Amino acid sequence: MQASEFLKDLRREIEHHPAVNHVFLMRVGTTPFTREDYRVFGLNHYPLVGTFCRYMEHLLLNAPDSDSKSWIAKVLVDEYGEGSDGEDHAQLYRKFLTACGVGPGEEDEEPLDPRVVEFIREHLRLVTEEPFLVGLGALGPGHEWAIPKMFVPIIDGLRRAGFDEREILYFTLHTLQDQDHGRWLEEALSIVVRTPEDAAQVRRGALLSMQARMRFWDGVQARVVRWRQPVHMWDIPERVRLWAARHQPTIAQVAPSLGVKLAAYRPQVRKYAGLEA
Amino acid sequence: MRILLVQPAPFEERRLGLENTVWRSEPVSLTSIAAMVPEHEVRILDMRCEKPSVLPEVLSGWQPDIVGTTAMTTDAYQAQAVLRLAKQIVPGALTLIGGHHCTLNTASYYVDWVDAAVLGEGELVFKEIVERWGRERSTRALEGLQGTDVRLPDGTRSKNGKAKNAPNLDHLPAPARHLVDRYRSQYFFLAAKPMASIFTSRGCSFDCNFCAIWEFYDRRTRFLSAEVIADRMAACEEPFIFLLDDNFMTRADRLEKLASELERRNIKKFFMTQGRSDFIAEHPELIARLAKVGLMGVLSGYETNDEKALEGLRKRNTLDNNIKAAKILKDNGVISTGIFMVRPEFDREDFAGLFEYIESLGVAIPLVTILTPLPGTEMWKKYREDLLTEDFRLFDLLHAVTPTKLPREEFYKEYVAWKRVGRTSMKAWFNRKTMLKRWDFYLRAAPNFPEMIWKRVRYQRIQFVPQSYLRDEAGIIRSNHSPRRPVDEVSLASK
Asked: Pick from A34, A205, B135, B420: CA 20 to 30 A from residue B334's CA?
C-alpha cells in the first residue's frame, strides 16, 4: 500500500470536488456582493466556525495512539488561538460579523438553513460514531485541504466589497494556516494509512464531509440570494416555507443537542462584541 | 480537442427576470460557434437547465482543452464565475468569453481567469482560435488575431479590434442544435414549449440610442436566404420556433419569399419573432400572409406614449404606427407582445399616462421595463456619470440605475401598477373571437397552460411587489442623487 500515492489521488479528488469548486464560491469571487449579502453569508457560516474545535476534541479522544493525538493537538492549539495573537477562530470570525453589521448576540439567534445544521450534525456523527480514520478523513482532507482553496474566491469577494484586512483576518489566516495543517495531517495520514482498508476509511470520511459541504454551500447560496426577495401575502406555500425557515433552530438552540458547548467560546465573543468590559 | 461551451445560469430561480416565466431560448450563440469546429469534440452545458454541481464535475472529469462562455450584461458576473471555475479546475485550458457584453465592455474581463475575449461576431474567429490553440498551447498563439483581446503569458494584452462579420450568412454552417438535444423540452416562450430558436438575419439598420445591436453589427443587417431559413425551420422537430432576429421585419421582399417558400414546401410551424411597429403598419397584407404560414407572435418595442420621447430615443417611429400595428396583429390573431419603457424621470402623471396609453393600444401582452443605459449604447456613454451603480446585476431593465424623480419607494410602487394594465390588456385581447382565428395554435399549446399559469402566478408575487426591487437594490444603490447634477436634468429621453 503506497500511502503517498493514495494521498496524492485523494488530494486531487478533494480539490476537484464540486463542493470545493461550488459555483456559489465562484460567484462570490466575481460578483460585487455587498456587506448586506455578506451578513447573511456570515451568519450561516459562523456556526461551522464555532463548532469545529468540538469535532477536533472528539477526534482527539478517539485517536488510537499518541502520535495521532499529537498531530491533532497541534491543529487544535492553532484553532484555540495560537498564531492569531490568542484570539480563537470564533473571535476572529466575530470581527468579520461585526464589520458586516451583525449586532452583539445576533449570531446565536439567527435561524439557520437546515443544511447548516445538517453539516454540523454529520461531522459530529463522523467523529463520534464512525471509526477514527473516517473522522480523520472528514476533518483532515475534508477540511484542511479544502478550505484554503475555497477561501481564495471568498477573500477576493470580501476585498471587493471593501472589507479591510483586519476584518477578514479569519479568512486570510486560514488560507495560510490550513496549508500548514494540511501538511501536518498529510504526514499523520501517511503514518496511519497502512492498508487499503485504512485508505478506504479515510476517503469515505473525506467524501462524506465534501457531500455535506456541497449541501451547506447550496444552503448558504439560497439564503444569500433569497434574503432580497419579499413574499406576497397571498403566496401561502411560500409563506409557510418562510415561517418554517424562521422557526429553524438557531445555533444557541441546537448546540446542547449536538453536545457543543457554546458557552465555551461565547464569553470571549461577548467580550469582543463589547458586552463585557 | 475537447471544447466545452457553457451558457451561464441566472443567480437562482424566482428572482426578478423574464427567464422565470416569459422566455428561455436555446443558446444559439454557442450552437453557432460549435458548428464551426465539427472535427473536434464539443459539448454544450446550459447551466440554466443543469444542477450547479454539473459544471465542476464535467470540467474535472472531461478535462476540456478550451472552455468558452457568453454573456449579455446581466450575465456578466455569472460568465466570469464559469471561467474562474474552469481555470481553477483545468488550469491548462484556454478560457474564452464572447457575446455582447464583452464586445461592448471588454475591460470588465481583464481578469486572470479569462485568457481571451472574442469581440463581435464569433464564428470565424472561434474557428481560427481553435486551430491556433491546437498548434500551440499558449495565448501567444492568438496574438494579433483580429476579433480578439488576448491576455498574453507575460500579462500584457494583445488588443486586435472587432471581428469582421461573415459576408454571407448562408455560408455559415447551421447551428449545431444536436448539442442541446437534452435540454429541448426546457426552452419556451410563454406556453410555446418545446420551442426551437433560430436566426434569419443579424443586425439592425436603425440606431436607437438605448440599443447596442447596431453598434455591435456596425449598423448593417445581413440575411439568410428564404431557402436556407425554410431548411432550418423544417429541420426543427419542435412545433414552435422563435426567430431570434434583432429585427425580423425588414425588407418586405425577403419576407414574401420566405412565405412563398414555406407555402411551397408545406412547412407547418408556429413561429414568433421581433419586429418594428412601423413595418407592420406599412405591410398589413404581408402580415396576414405571414400569419397564414405560421406567424403567431411578434415582440415590438412600442416604448412610450410620448412622440417627443420617441424622438429623443431616436426610435424613428410614431405613435400612430403603434396603434395601427397593434390592430393589424390582432386582426390576424398574432399575439402582440408590446415592450414599453418607463423612465426614471417619470412622475405619477407620467406613469398614469403611459398605462392609459397601453390600455388603449390593444396589445395582447404588455411588458413594462425601465429605461436603462446599457453598456455599449450611446445612452451609456452620455449618462455614465449619472449612474447610481455599475453593478450589472441591476442592468436588467427592471431597476432604475439612474436617479428617479419620485422617491424610489414611490417610483417602484407606481411601476408595479402595470400589473393592472397587463391584466386588462390580456383580458381584452384573449377573447373567443381572437383565439378562434388561431385555434390550432392554442390547441397545440394547451397542455402547457397549467405550467405557464402556475409559474406566472408564483412569479407575479415577486414581480408586482415594490419591495422586490428595493431589496435588490439594498446596499447597491445607496443614494438617489446623480453624482453630477440635479435629478430634473437627468432625462434619458431628452434629445
From this structure: B420
